[in-house]
Amino acid sequence: MVLGIDFLLTALVVVIAPGTGVIYTVATGLAHGPRASAAAAVGCTLGIVPGALAAILGLAALVHASALLFQAVKIAGVVYLLYLAWMTLTDRGPLRFDDNAPTTRGLFQIARAGFLINVLNPKLSIFFMAFLPQFIDAKAGGVALQMVGLTAVFMAMTLGVFLLYGFFAAQVRDGLRRRPAIMTWVRRTVAGAFAGFGLRLALAER
Question: Model pTM?
Answer without folding.
Answer: 0.84
